[in-house]
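Operator note (shift B, R.M.): manual run for Metal-dependent hydrolase requested after the automated queue skipped it. Running by hand, logging everything below so the morning shift can see what happened. Input copied straight from the record, untouched. If output looks odd, do not overwrite the archive copy; leave it for review.
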Amino acid sequence: MWFWTLASLGLAGFLDLVAGVFFVHLLSLYFGHPLLWWQYAIGAALGASPDIDLLYAFFKKNLGGHHEYLTHRPIIGIPLAIIIGWFLGGAFWATAALIGVFWHYLHDTEGFLCLYDNGGLAWFWPFSKEYWGVRDFRVVSRMPEVHTRKEEDVFDNVYKVYLIPTRQAITEFLLTGIFFGYVIGDTLGVHISVAATYVFWVGVAALWIVYHCRSTQR
Ligand SMILES: [Zn+2]
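Run finished. Output pasted below as returned.
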């Protein structure tokens, strides 16, 4: 159903958006350059920017294989982000773009934060097609899976990861809470930060409960 698709995709992308906000906030402190709300929005977009290929993948009916597009090739994506950031906003936005997309690629790497549902990433493409990651504290690589699954199955996987309190979901949402709690605390005050983090967790718990009740009723 569209609501659960949107909710699960939203939850899947939330950490990247919030991480983007967190990093531009830290950079604004470093550069002594206070930001306006829309500049935080640009930070959020930077954290999620490589996933712009999901739009293309959606039309190509190849959502599961979107890590194979140029936007998920770090050797292309990182310099491109720096150049665009530099032309549009100088040193500040070049650094913000670098950190935003670098974070995104780390998050897509298998084994990042000891999580394994990240899809994997070909860090060294075009020199190697393999997805590099970490498992049991060792660097590992593998060939990407060939995606022949139907679109519903791809959504099914997102449902299973984020609409249920899995280790992946809990770790990512804890980090999300820390990132946005920090930024809100620094800009709007500790009380609003605690309240916002509380509302976030109540919202997540409510989604998990409703989704659980709905799936057990079927
Ligand atoms: Zn991605």
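Quick read of the result: Residues 13 and 156 are 16 Å apart (CA to CA). The pocket of zinc ion is lined by residues 50-51, 72, 104, 108 (CB under 6 Å).
Leaving this for review. - R.M.
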